[in-house]
User: Fold this.
Amino acid sequence: MSDSERFVVGGSQSVDVPSTVLTGQAWVDHLGSGVAPSRLRLLRVQLAPGSRTVWHSHQYGQILHVIDGIALTQERGGPVSRHSAGDTIVCAPGVWHWHGSAPDQFMTHIAVHEVQDDGADATWGDHVTDEEYLA
Ligand code: MN
Assistant:
């Protein structure tokens, strides 16, 4: 395996996150993928103010690391919590949750997770309502 297959060199292309999995606007950079049988994925995600993912779960969990702005997260049945740059958030396997920016500023986080058995990054559910987001 050559270095070019093992390393992503320089910036990757920022891709719009589709509205089926997001309220608002976000961009994702695919920074790296593990070599099979690893299914690790390393992403950088930037969300515009007031944006949030739909409710979703990750079969093998997820780790988020906030690098800019304020991240809002909520697990099903729990309160909305705020996280600052430098904070790391662990999402347990199979636990339904969402993550988003605060209403008034951009937020960027690193996301690390393993692709699910079905090949998807997550199992996606309903949009997060304004009432849920602003709670
Ligand atoms: Mn997630």
Observations:
- The chain has a mean pLDDT of 91.
- The chain has one domain: 3-134.
